[in-house]
Amino acid sequence: MYVLEKAPAKINLSLDVLYKRADNFHEIEMVMTTVDLADRLEITEINENRIKIESENRFVPNDERNLAYRAAKLLKDSYGIRRGVNIKIEKLIPVAAGLAGGSSDAAATLRGLNRLWSLGLSTRELAKLGAKIGSDVSFCVHNTTAIARGRGEVITELPAPPACWVVLAKPTMGVSTKSVYQQLNLDSIAHPDTEGMVRSVMLGDYDGMCNRLGNVLEDVTLPSYPEVQQIKTQMSLSGADAVLMSGSGPTVFSLVKQESRADRIYNSLRGFCDEVYVVRMLGYHQSLD
Ligand SMILES: C[C@](O)(CO)[C@H](O)COP(=O)(O)OP(=O)(O)OC[C@H]1O[C@@H](n2ccc(N)nc2=O)[C@H](O)[C@@H]1O
Ligand SMILES: Nc1ncnc2c1ncn2[C@@H]1O[C@H](COP(=O)(O)OP(=O)(O)OP(=O)(O)O)[C@@H](O)[C@H]1O
Fold first, then answer.
1. pTM of the prediction?
2. Which of this chain's residues are annotated to bind ATP (predicted)?
């Protein structure tokens, strides 16, 4: 028996940090959605009572450090499951990119094992478990468009944003999320209009959504990595409707209505940036088979 699960990348349409909490995490408010760039997981039952990870990507650990491993272990331990699985991860999302690739793999593992082991857990129950693995995992379990609050685990689903093309570009370096949060100066934040972003998404107002893209973590990552600003500038010059860094970076995305413009941005970045993708926004509940 096996199940297949898609694990899509996320982008943050807005990301605000409200304050630092006593537990050293930051209280945040984000509007997030998923894009059509996804890892593919094949989860197969094996005869031994253990979790095996298979991945050909040299940046992805194939042991207990893998977030998919941690998700499987958490589910096994929480529900006393004495069965084993092999989790094969076809890695298409760039690693340490600000696209929540690892978190999405963990979420896909929770969804997949819920089916494989017929656990009957609801999305909310899986999302609650996911929060124990990482702040982005609950959102990834929902696998839709949503507002995320708390440290990222308090999810309110939203309708899909207005349809558009998304061009993603990841510079070569990876960025440590922890270090970006640590360096953020909370006194000088220009807070994005989260409420306005939510309204724009709900109304299907594409221009409103473009005008309200905002990510306070750019304050840290942009000055540290000039390549990120260069990509933003290049995308704007090539006709993007709006441009923003995703998560803690370094991936930058642009939104465009016209496919021809998306192609123009893609072509303008090739040779200058190794990993560039033109994808669609998802944000609907996906058929995961
Ligand atoms: C930047 C985002 O990706 C935006 O979606 C998330 O906020 C980060 O989500 P994540 O990578 O799943 O984060 P975690 O693995 O839970 O935390 C990594 C580190 O980021 C910092 N962190 C994370 C989330 C949060 N609300 N406040 C924080 O300060 C903490 O130092 C933590 O040790
Ligand atoms: N399944 C996985 N896929 C990718 N990286 C993983 C995975 N499991 C563990 N990791 C580790 O997690 C680190 C961060 O990877 P990931 O691609 O999830 O970062 P990210 O996209 O910046 O995450 P976020 O946007 O949530 O901050 C990697 O350097 C890698 O060592």
1. 0.96
2. 94-104
